[in-house]
Amino acid sequence: MGTLKVLMGNEEEKIFWSLDDSEAVQKAREKFDHYQKQGFIAAKIVDQGDKGVQLSEFDPEAEEIFMLGLADGG
Q: N or C: fewer beta carbons within 10 Å in the chain?
């Protein structure tokens, strides 16, 4: 099960997918692309949450992807 978390100020949007559900994967990919075009930065969590790796494209095998707008980063 994968999770895409989009952080927008005080709001958070979550999109979930499973690798065996191609429709859900496609929806998550479309959301990822939509926010990336708006300038959001994406990172996937690796090493059991100990670090993140910046993404330039959607990774359906990632367990958790965070997207953050540049204005929200501080």
A: C
